[in-house]
Specification:
heterodimer; A: Rossmann fold; two-stranded antiparallel sheet; about 30% helix; about 20% strand; B: alpha/beta; Rossmann fold; 2 domains; three-stranded antiparallel sheet; binds S-adenosylmethionine
Chain lengths: ~200, ~280
């Protein structure tokens, strides 16, 4: 993967209230947002891929359901398919797993965050949005342990605050923001600390 | 420069998998790394060892300890009529072809505890094919095959399986297929008699000849592309022309070498028919 700025990927975990939250967040991102975005949304096992299609229609940025052994690209949002965990391989390919649910969830936010933290290290931004459980709190710990950045939706702003609260109890977030401000923050993080974009530049790991 | 703790663990895992391959002949080096790492780490957390390096010495010397690790690696999650839409497509679009043969042979690769094979037996029997098929259901994990042979499941699962069965187009009463005994459901012997459970390792073992259908669902998602290609070649060599290859709902033959010799029976069904000639 091309490594330009500090960050290489964004992961997002969201549960109840997720459809609205994702519409608002992704809807504010430009079509050429420079990083890949991987999302676990808790969803019924036989939901189909309607969610990815809907978001793709509503948002400027490209949204699709994650396929197995797919290479992640910038400016693309990948949603975990219903009933499968989504993980990232060391070589940057996406992987799916039918392993048992984790914290009652499949896909599980922790599973995605933990595998992404191992691969992207300090180059990862992890975001926890609205939700009624504590999935993701181990994941944000792992992201911090690997030097990544954690962003949590302000619980007061979340439709269901439990998941943000659990994440904040589990680790010290770098940013606690309202949904309305999150796209701007992401843009700043993704573009801000970046080194000048020149081809063939050495990575800054 | 010192390594990050995570990187060190990756090195330890690579060394361990190399050792296991040399000592026991089980080769997990071409498994997708994220999932196997997750499973190994879980095993380590429940073990008495602090690191994989510590565990390695005993793992290489004590077969029983290795077996416990193997159990951790193989994760045999399955269910009856998993993905009802898949079984409906089988019933409506594939069985009519199978019925034209006097006898059909079916291979379930990575059958886990047998739920998928038993679901298929129910479906074929309902479609009037009882006694006209043989199923070879295989897995790398001998302990889970033992379970499969017994055909006993937790009674608490029956509600979910009944729902799956009905959604898949089942025509009878699901309760007729098992006997409840305390907290267990014992599958009817009529479902077992045409299934052979046997060990088979997709990494190392050879193909099964002349199959009319091969099912390998949610097994190759754990493999790296190279190993997945090997398996697909194995299945291709096992299948007769006109035979069916069934994959998991998130697995496809798109972008695969052999893909152009197969047609998907219905879009998204992940049931592929091998062309004649
Ligand atoms: C997730 S289960 C899938 C069960 C079933 N096919 C289904 O879809 O419900 C994966 C199975 O693949 C088996 N497996 C893993 N590696 C294998 C190998 N190299 N050869 C054969 N089976 C393997 C595991 O032991 C496990 O039982």
């Amino acid at each position: 993967m091309a490594r330009r700025g500090r960050f290489q990927a964004v992961v997002i975990g969201v549960s109840s209230g997720g459809v609205q939250a994702l519409k608002r967040l992704l809807g504010q991102l430009p079509a050429d947002f420079p990083l890949p975005i991987l999302i676990v949304q808790h969803i019924s096992p036989d939901a189909g891929n309607g969610m990815a299609k809907l978001l793709d229609q509503l948002c400027a940025i490209r949204v699709k359901e994650a396929d197995e052994q797919e290479r992640v690209l910038p400016a693309t949002v990948y949603l975990a398919p219903p009933n499968y965990h989504l993980l990232v391989e060391r070589d940057g390919l996406l992987a799916l797993s039918a392993d048992a649910p984790v914290s009652f969830a499949r896909p599980s936010v922790d599973v995605l965050f933990e595998s992404a933290a191992a691969v992207f290290g300090a180059g990862l931004i992890g975001i926890i949005l609205t939700g009624a459980n504590y999935d993701g709190s181990r994941g944000v710990q792992r992201i911090k342990a690997h030097g990544g950045v954690v962003v949590v939706q302000d619980p007061a702003d979340a439709e269901t605050p439990q998941m943000p609260l659990a994440a904040l109890a589990a680790t010290t977030a770098d940013h606690v923001v309202a949904l309305a401000d999150m796209a701007a923050l992401l843009q700043r993080l993704a573009g801000g600390t970046a080194a000048p974009r020149r081809q063939g530049e050495a990575s800054d790991a | 420069m010192a390594m990050m703790p995570g990187e060190l663990e990756d090195v330890e895992i690579r060394l361990l998998l190399e050792g296991l391959q040399q000592v026991y002949g089980y080769d997990f080096r071409d498994y997708a790394d994220a999932s196997i790492k997750r499973r190994l780490t879980q095993w380590l957390a429940e073990s008495a060892f602090a690191t994989f390096s510590q565990a390695q010495s005993q793992l290489l010397r004590e077969p029983e300890l290795f077996v416990s690790l193997l159990q951790g690696i193989t994760v045999n999650v399955t269910e009856m009529f998993r993905d009802p839409s898949f079984f409906r497509a089988l019933r409506e679009q594939v069985v009519p072809f199978l019925k034209t043969y006097p006898f059909v042979k079916i291979w379930h690769a990575g059958c886990a505890s047998g739920e998928e094979a038993y679901s298929m037996a129910i479906l074929l029997n309902e479609e009037g094919m009882a006694g006209r098929y043989r199923m070879y259901a295989t897995d790398i994990d001998e302990a889970v095959l033992q379970k499969a042979t017994e055909g006993v499941m937790p009674i608490t699962e029956m509600q979910r399986y009944t729902r799956n069965y009905q959604k898949s187009g089942g025509t009878a009463s699901f309760a007729d297929y098992y006997t409840a005994r305390y907290d267990r459901a014992i599958l009817s012997p009529s479902l077992k008699k045409d299934i052979v459970f046997a060990p088979h390792n997709l990494v190392a073992d050879a193909e099964f000849g002349e199959m009319n259908m091969v099912l390998c669902r949610n097994v190759m998602i754990y493999f790296k592309p190279t190993l997945k290609e090997r398996c697909l070649r194995l299945f291709d060599n096992s299948l007769l022309a006109g035979g069916f290859l069934c994959l998991g709902l998130k697995e496809t033959l798109e972008r695969r070498k052999m893909g152009d010799r197969y047609d998907e029976v219905a879009p998204g069904s992940r049931i592929y028919r091998k062309r004649y000639g």
